[in-house]
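To: structure subgroup
Subject: Chain for Friday's discussion

All,

I'm putting the inputs and outputs inline so they're searchable in the archive.
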Amino acid sequence: MPDTLSTTSSVCTARDSARIAALYYLGRIQYPKLTILESAYRNHLERAYKTYGAKTDGTTLSWEAFLEGLYAFDWFVTCGCAEGLDAAWETLFNTRTGRSDCLLLDALRARACRLYPRDDEKQESAVAEFWSHLIVPDAEGRTPTLLRYDGQRPLAPWLIRVFQNWHLSKLRRHSGATAMPDDDLAMELPTKTKTETRWHEAFCTAAREWLGGMTDNERLLLGLRWRYRMSQRDVAGLLGVHEGTISRQTDKLRDGALESIRTRLIAEGWTEDDLEGYILTEMGGLLLDDPRLSADQLGRLLQAKGKSLPVG
């Protein structure tokens, strides 16, 4: 690629081009399995630069400023996904989202639980549908989701916002309200009201106290059922016990959680209807985020029983 690239905003100088090369090779060192051609990397970077420059309201954006704000490793993984590299997709699936051992996939599932409470089928299809449209557009003439990423913000939080806003837009469309324009899909989510924040914090405190009182066996059962979405039959087969035992233990866990958290929230002054529905809706995200149910912790609990973590 030549050292000067004409763009709608500025010109990529020889110095900028050298920095791009340095960022490219830095990415190759960090992710040796991602065999992206430098020419492809530069093409994707120029596209992102033009896309980002179009959002600056006519202000000239220099390549130097753009490269200074680039999240280089996130961008390199994005380029690998755009090039169809399986290793890049595997890296994206395993991206951590800033919480203890919360994978990107888990974070999306947690949002799906809140968007479609008590609808397991819709929760799973929401995540699968989102993944399918990261590279393939959901409608003719649209830009695929991942190709709208400009590298100027962390990738995982951006994808989570796009996922939530994309589904909120669909829900609004189905209810007859105006859907969000494409450019607004990655906007910040609206902040919660003080009342919503109060009850969410009260719920989290009560739920974590309940989790803290669980035995290792109860924690393992909960992790297998929630994090790995295993059926009662599969859990029974893995642990070598009767399915009826798992069913009784699952019911006991559920009833114990509802009773413990319900008592705490009522004591805090809860007077609204459907307290059980609120608890079950909030529970999915908390369980996926809690480090006591992390993949590493569950792996150790299974190892102690001579078992292996489930695959997939």
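Points worth raising on Friday:
The chain has 14 helices and two strands.
Strands lie at 5-6, 11-12.

D.
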